[in-house]
Amino acid sequence: MFLHVGGDRMVPLTGLVAILDAGVLTESPETRQMYLRLRSEGAVNPVDAYWRRSLLVTDEGITESTVASLTLYGRWQRIACKWGTGPASSALHDII
Q: Is-contact 81 92, C-beta < 8 A?
């Protein structure tokens, strides 16, 4: 299963670790440092910073999205519940 994250971008649900609001890049120095390191290693699938609203952390890196984190969380929740892997049994527990 895949989560549509805006535009032509899809993220596999099996590798999804977290859905973060893009604001964490300005609020958390540790998260910003991790983000910059991954970006320098080519592990960030970026969008224009002006339009960036959320970050999806996966096993393979970070995918930026123009869709709000709460909207993405709702999409994930609907897919997970439909396929019997609801929020209680998933590895994705929180949204920031």
A: no
